Structure formats: C-alpha cells, structure tokens
Predict the structure.
Amino acid sequence: LNGRAILYADKVTDSMKRAIEETQRRREKQREHNEKHKITPRSVVKPVKDIIDGVAIDPNDRAALSKGSTGS
C-alpha cells in the first residue's frame, strides 16, 4: 500500500531511471483504475505462519530437495 524501495548507488543510472519511471507509470494507471471503479486499496493482514507454510518444503520430500526446489 505504501511500499518503498531504497536504492543505494553513487549515481542514478539510466536503468534505474527507467525502472523508477515505469513504477510511477504503473502506480498512476492503478490509481486511475481504482478511482474509476471506486476501489479503496487495503493491506493484506495475514499471520507470518501462513506465509511460511505456503513456501515450506517437506523435509521428507527427497525429490524436491534433490532438485533444489524452494517450494515456490
């Protein structure tokens, strides 16, 4: 909802400028869509345990472990 990214660099590169501009373009497009459809953005409230359970690997699943799967 109010996410932020902190970029550390000695100078702003062209790639960084393009990424920032694209993010701004997408945010504006989303804001317009939300306004048009009377949508009020809300944060997702979910316990951390639910998030962890969604990506956990069963330690007995040797196939997933041998393939280097992260469960996602």
